[in-house]
Q: What sequence folds into this?
């Protein structure tokens, strides 16, 4: 009795890689943070601040760079979700292009660490602004595809708009953690859903 070969889609592979890289590098950086640290008191980028964590900062910043690089094939791979609808393809392509831009912005967050000041703030602001539109456009486009799990789409809309609401009203560190890890969960769910693209 042989093993059954499962061909995974690039969306599944790259999406899983995105989640894995960010979570692992963040946890390692957190382990080396020399002072008490948590979502109630600190922004995620504080892990990459060399003034606060001279050694651990390397891990967080590298994590942002590698995750940003992994986002590029992830968004390119969403071509597999295209349908025959020209409208769907246009929406998806715009989302994909903005998604690649968000990956570049995340790389910039890692290159320009928090202790560098304005360059980091500009990169971080660009990332969070772009990713909002990316998620909205991609989720809308995904709803055109019958393979897409609509529950995943509802979750995606929920995390996107609730994050925006929290950013405009509450703000602060918890909002950033909620937005980042809520978005990563959407990527993980989409990666899982993408396994159906190559199922028999």
A:
């Amino acid at each position: 009795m042989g093993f059954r070969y499962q061909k995974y889609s690039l969306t599944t592979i790259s999406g899983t890689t995105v989640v894995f890289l960010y979570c692992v590098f963040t946890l390692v950086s957190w382990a080396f943070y020399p002072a008490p640290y948590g979502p109630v008191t600190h922004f995620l980028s504080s892990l990459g601040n060399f003034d606060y964590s001279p050694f651990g900062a390397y891990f967080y910043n590298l994590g942002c760079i590698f995750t940003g690089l992994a986002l590029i094939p992830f968004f390119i791979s969403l071509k597999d979700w295209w349908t025959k609808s020209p409208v769907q393809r246009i929406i998806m392509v715009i989302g994909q292009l903005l998604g690649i831009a968000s990956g570049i912005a995340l790389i910039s967050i890692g290159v320009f660490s928090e202790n560098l000041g304005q360059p980091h703030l500009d990169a971080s602001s660009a990332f969070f602004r772009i990713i909002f539109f990316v998620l909205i456009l991609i989720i809308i486009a995904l709803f055109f595809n019958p393979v897409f799990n609509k529950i995943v789409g509802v979750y995606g809309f929920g995390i996107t708009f609730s994050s925006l609401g929290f950013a405009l009203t509450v703000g602060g560190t918890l909002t950033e953690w909620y937005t980042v890890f809520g978005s990563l969960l959407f990527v993980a769910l989409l990666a899982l859903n993408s396994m159906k693209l190559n199922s028999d």
In short: The longest helix spans residues 86-111. Residues 99 and 134 are 6 Å apart (CA to CA). Residues 10-194 form one domain.
